[in-house]
Each structure stands twice: as C-alpha cells, then as structure tokens.
Amino acid sequence: MSNEQSLTNIYNTMVSTNEIQRNISQQTLVSELEKLTRKLEQKKALDVSVAGRVFSKFRFTKALEKNQGVYIHGGVGIGKSMLMDLFFKYLNLKEKKRIHFHEFMKGIHQLIKNAREKNVRDPIKSVAADYIKNIHVLCLDEMQITDVADAMIVGRVFEEFFKKKLILVTTSNRHPRDLYKNGLNRKLFLPFIDIMVSNLNVEKLSAPLDYRKIKISGKKKYFLSASPEDTFQFNELISDFNLRKGSGIKIQMNSREFEMKRFQSGVGLLTFNEICSIPMSSSDYLEIISHLRLLFLDDIPDLSNGGDDSAKRFINLIDSIYDQKVELLCRADVVPEKLYTFGKNKFEFERTVSRLFEMQSTNWPANGKSS
Ligand SMILES: Nc1ncnc2c1ncn2[C@@H]1O[C@H](COP(=O)(O)OP(=O)(O)O)[C@@H](O)[C@H]1O
Ligand SMILES: [Mg+2]
After folding, report:
1. Mutate which of 84, 139, 212 to test ligand 1's pocket (most atoms within 8 Å of Cβ)?
2. Strand 263-264 and strand 267-271: pairing?
3. Which ligand is nearest to the CA of 245?
4. For labelling, which of 9, 114, 118, 314 has a CA lying 20 to 30 Å from the CA of 201?
5. Cα–Cα distance for residue pair 151/140, rounded to 1 Å
6. The pTM is what?
7. Phi, psi of 14 (to 5 degrees)
8. Distance of CA 288 to the CA centre of its chain
9. From the CB of residue 316, how many other CB atoms can be counted at a distance below 10 Å?
10. Which residues contact 306 (CB under 8 A, 6 or more apart)?
C-alpha cells in the first residue's frame, strides 16, 4: 500500500464522497489497522532482503509480540466488518485469509476429526499449525462462542496460532471477557480469554445508530418489477450497499459450495432463480442465511404455474430468513398474496405470505440478529 493509499486516506475519501458518515471511533480503529498494515508490509520488505532477514527478528517480531492483531467489538451495524474488510482488501500480502468465524470453526472441527481418525498425536495442535502454514494474517468475522465443542478447543487452537506469530483481526459483538457467558464448563474456556486479551488490541467501536438500519429506514421492502419507480428505488438501495463491488462469499454447505458474488459485510443480493430453482434443503438455507443480516431477493416470479418445487423451496427460504430475523427486501412480479394462488403447497404457502407481510413492517425484526 502506498502512502496516498493509506487506510486513513481511503476512509477519508469514503467520508468526503458521502459513502459513509465520519465516526471518531471508526477513525481511531482505522489508524490502528493502518499501523498494523505498515508493520506487516515493513516486515515483508525486510524478509525478502538478506540483511533484513538478519534484522527482522530483532526489530520487528519484538514489536509485534504484544500486538498480534486487533479484536474489534461493539454493537450491530456499526462498521466492524466493513473496516476489517477494508484492512483485508488493501493489505498487500498474499498469505492472508478472511473467513466467517462459524465457517472457520466448522473447518477446524472437520480437520480435527480427520486427524483423530489418522491417530495423529495431539490433533488440535497439529491441525492449528497446519491451518496457518501458508497464512500470515487471518481475518475472522463475527467471533462468538455458543457451542461447548468450540469453547473446549479454541484456547489450544489460538495458543498455537499466536506461538506461530499469526496476525489476527477479528470482529465480535462482545468483549472477549463476555464471550461464552454462562456457558457450560466456562472455567475451562477462561484461558482462551487470557490468550485473546494478552495478544490482541481490544478496540471498541461505537456509533450513534445502526448504519444498516438507517439506509433502509422508511423505505419500502417489497417492490414490484412492473413498476419503473419501484425498480429504480430497489436498485438505488442495492447501490447504497455497494453490493456489486462487494467481496463475495463462498459458503460451504453439506456437500457443496454456494457462491454469492454480490455480497458485502452481511448484506447480499440474490435472484430467485439463484436460490430457489436449484436443489436446496432447509439446512442449506439455514447455512446461507446465517451469513446474512440483510438479503435483497430479486426477480421473484409468479409461482402458480408449475412452480410447486420452487414454491416449496421459497417456503423454506422465507422460514429461515424469518427465524434468523434477517431483513428482507424483495422485487417480485406480483404482490405476496398472488405469488402462489394454486398448487400442492398452497396451504403451507399461506404462512409464507403472512411472514412476508410481517417482515415488511417498519419495526421488524424487533430484536434483530446480534453482532
Ligand atoms: N460511518 C458509516 N457511515 C455510514 N454507513 C456506514 C458507516 N460505517 C458502516 N456503515 C455501513 O453500515 C452497514 C453495516 O456495517 P457492518 O460493517 O456490516 O456492521 P457490523 O459488522 O458492525 O454489524 C454497512 O452497509 C456499512 O457500509
Ligand atoms: Mg459484521
């Protein structure tokens, strides 16, 4: 990253072009992340020069020792993921990885299971070391510990990561001391908290409001494709979230991968065909929706003619969105009650129609998804 492209300058440009509003706590975090970027890039430059190799250990590992990265915490919709993604995007380093925490843990459990089957000695340690063999910087979005199986292994995993000098940037809606609060066997989890606090700068972000909510507040949530005005508004909202320039996300489902190309910081755009015209189970939908806070669903067709299978999938999709309290903005050919007027899933579809209406109200979801 050159000087003109420093994270602070990029942030300032976003403010001056009205992409975002200035926020002091975000600015502080941006300069923290910028320092980390500089350290990493200096270290990289030294590592490639011969003299550097001699000095780098002495000059930089030391400086990084108490600073293995940043733990960003705070409420919903205040820019945690946005700033972590900004850091990730502009970090000029090949050995970097960004992954959702939930996805990360799933992968680690699978690798530990494989290692156990092969009778590897100390499987947790060996998996942790292998995982970061080619990774220097790991960005984990939405760290939260709710599962005892996760709670019992994270301490060992991250201990190994930091021993190997991994740089970690993570977001969470809780301070490390509040993770896994009241969880089963929490005492065994406490070393993990110490590891996080002693290795990472814990930074709290705060904002007067949930920025995500502001963008859609007072706006319609169900748009009709035939109306040019609706279509214009729907597209304007999509561009407010920068989805077309977004990072995209690959989600591992039971046996396949699902790619959402237009995705950024928990907000995604899908067409009806992309998500309801291919085989999908309820658990696939649960998995996909768990990565979202807001979904734009475009091109919902009239399902009455031969749309039984898609209608069934749409029922499951809406249930998943509803249960997980995700915001939904739709563009459809017809109003909800006309989407599926006859067919074998008609009875069940009534629940979907009712949920579609409920989700359009301004105070839905009353208590949105946390983090
Ligand atoms: N300072 C800001 N001004 C306006 N919008 C912002 C600001 N910071 C973040 N946003 C927007 O708010 C939304 C939520 O941000 P995100 O990083 O996903 O929040 P979090 O991860 O904290 O839940 C995103 O669409 C982001 O672009
Ligand atoms: Mg987030």
Report:
1. 212
2. antiparallel
3. 1
4. 9
5. 16
6. 0.79
7. -60, -35
8. 11
9. 19
10. none
CA of 77 to the centre of ligand 1 (A): 5
3-class DSSP state for residue 136? coil
Mutate to test the pocket of ligand 1, among 19, 78, 141 (most ligand atoms within 8 A of CB): 78
- Identify the residue whose C-alpha is closest to ligand 1 atom 20: 77
What percentage of the chain has pLDDT greater than the value 70? 92
Dist. CA 256–CA 275, nearest whole Å: 14
Does 334 sit in the ligand 1 pocket, CB within 6 Å?
A: no
Q: Is the CB of 170 under 6 A from ligand 1?
A: no
What are the chain's domains?
7-205 (3.40.50.300), 211-359 (3.40.50)
Q: What is the pLDDT of residues 299-351, one digit of tens each?
A: 999 999 888 999 999 999 999 999 999 999 999 999 999 999 999 999 999 99
Query: Hunting for tokens 């992409």 — which residue is that?
Result: 19
Q: How many residues does the chain have?
A: 371
Q: What single letter denotes the amino acid at residue 343?
A: G
Sign of the four-CA dihedral 181, 187, 188, 191: positive
